[in-house]
């Protein structure tokens, strides 16, 4: 089994990062990539091509995509929960004002 202390894992991206991610892999230097992804090992954040990201994680491409989707879905759900809580608070303040 590989050493997991320095193992990279997918990092969630916000909407801006999804639309304006770099097109150069910070590992192999390839340029004009169609897609780069954000990965972290807890200390560093890198933008890599999907192949280099899978290698950095020590898994195959399919497993990488599965894990990246799970991380992004969890981040999106947390963001939506926070947004819903803020909306409920704003609505409660408005109702209190009207009463």
Structure description:
The protein is 52% helix and 12% strand. It is α+β, with helices and mostly antiparallel strands and 99 residues long. Strands 1-2-3 form a three-stranded antiparallel beta sheet. Helix 2 packs across helix 3. The chain is elongated and about 60 Å long. It starts with 8 loop residues before the first strand and ends with a helix.
In short:
Helix content is 52%, strand content 12%.
Indicate the overall shape: elongated
Percent of residues in β-strands? 5-15%
Helix content: 40-55%
Order of helices and strands: EHEEHH
| N→C terminal distance | 63 Å
Topology:
Elements: E1 9-10, H1 15-19, E2 36-40, E3 45-49, H2 50-57, H3 61-98
Antiparallel strand pairs: 1-2, 2-3
Helix pairs in contact: 2-3
What labels describe this entry?
3-stranded antiparallel β-sheet, 99 residues, alpha+beta, disordered N terminus, elongated
